Amino acid sequence: MDTRAIAYDCDGTRLTGYAADGAPHRKKPGILVAHEAFGMNDHIRARTRRLAELGYAAFALDMYGAEGLSLPEAVSRHVTLMSAPGLMLARASAAFSVLTALPGVDPERTAAIGFCQGGITALELARGGAPVRCAVGFHPGLMRPAGSPDQPIRAKVLMMIGDQDPDVPPEDRTAFAAEMQSKTVDWQLHLFGGVGHAYTNPDIDRLNRPGYGYNAAADRRSWTMMLALIEEAFEAPAASGLEEHR
Questions:
Q1: What digits encode the pLDDT tens for the residues 98-152?
Q2: Residue 200: which domain range?
Q3: pTM for this one?
Q4: Is residue 63 part of a domain?
Q5: CA nearest 125: which of 138, 112, 116?
Q6: Domains contained in the chain, number
Q7: In this structure, what is the dihedral angle of CA atoms 4, 123, 67, 30, given to the nearest 10 degrees?
Q8: What is the distance between the alpha carbons of residues 59 and 190, in angstroms, rounded to a whole number?
Q9: pLDDT at residue 31 above 90?
Q10: For residue 77, which of 15, 162, 151 has the smallest C-alpha distance?
Q11: Cα gap 120→27, rounded to integer Å
Q12: What's 178's domain CATH number?
């Protein structure tokens, strides 16, 4: 497998993403992977490699230009992304350009997925008119960042949250559903019963934060649901089929 760090710029900010491709010389769909509010880390790199193992080219974006941040610093940067008009979309768009320029990527078959903050990022790309065939969020917040575009959404949308997630109150779910319905999007909002925030991240329990927790069943099921939608959107099965969760 070909894995490498790729540096790129967005409006003067130096960012470093992570690419993984199991067959770089073969034409294949490309998937953009957006990280949590914690920033680029081993969890995101591992997810990127898992997609490459399935026959896709994957690129994990960098929203911060730094990693290994303390929790307060990560929260501060997340707040900036949400409050600075257009910043999240600009950085996501820069990363999407890197993805589509990778050797072997079919620019006509792309998708965006994201975890926590990354789910918001994937959806912003779809709102901004990026030609992604689907946008998938794992335990995403459903609030829109400042300056969020209001264009038609052509992508299939799948957002998956825990019904005990303290960061996604019922009113945010209602607003999300209303937006999707008003734009006649092919959309899904899946609730995992008894599950909290960050359910895909095995390291989240270290925070000992109420309402946050890893859930192996929700992790496994959500990944399978994502793969099924991506295969549907690309109109072809992944090279290895649905992988067995590790």
A1: 999 999 999 999 999 999 999 999 999 999 999 999 999 999 999 999 999 999 9
A2: 2-234
A3: 0.94
A4: yes
A5: 112
A6: 1
A7: 0
A8: 25
A9: yes
A10: 15
A11: 28
A12: 3.40.50.1820
